Amino acid sequence: MKVGLFVTCLVDLMRPRIAFAAIRLLEAAGCEVVVPLSQTCCGQPAYNSGERRAARLLAEKVIEEFETCEHVVAPSGSCAGMIRMHYPDLFVDDPAWRERAAALAARTHELSDFLATVVKLDKVPGDFAGTVTYHDACSGLRELGVKAQPRALLAKMPGVHLVEMDGAEECCGFGGAFAVKFGDISARLAEKKCDNVRASGADAVVLGDLGCMLNIEGKLRRMGDEKTRVLHIAEILSGEA
Length: 241
Fold this sequence. Notes:
Strand content: 5-15%
Radius of gyration: 17 Å
Number of domains: 2
Number of helices: 13
Distance between the termini: 27 Å
Largest sheet: 4 strands, parallel
């Protein structure tokens, strides 16, 4: 099975080890992983800002880079949601491109969903031992229905004990440009999320979107918490944590 890994801008720039962890997991599932070197952004920031022309140009680029792959996988519910839910909308006035966008959208998956429901990975390489809690990032949860999948994968790790925090499905306050445009609201949401993480007593909070990770980790450290780890689901499952 030929799988294209959409690395995402944040992972590429801020925490590349998430991409390597994703590759390890996909290869453990028997996939042939390809990573187009020319890939850049999925176009979501432009799309959310109303810059449809820029978003469309980026979408065309992504489609051309990945449409020979049987599946496209992203370690981000946000980027996977953009491709899967919004690409067809960008081409409502162009039937040929809309068909290509819809075809790619149907083959695009968030990482944990792909591992749990498409390839049905039965064993993960990671050997993490400790108590974790899980934060449900907004796009993955609300656009793609990612909820049970990462928890099912964590359950395959004998050393992991999952405890649910209060408000696991509530926003951490990141929301891309939201955190910039509405800083005060974002900071309050982040503080509430971090209070819930700490109250859970977990050694680590695990999640599937790097934007949320950076927001939560930054707030935890500013609150004086230097102990609680913030891990991407790919890191803990692959053994890169």
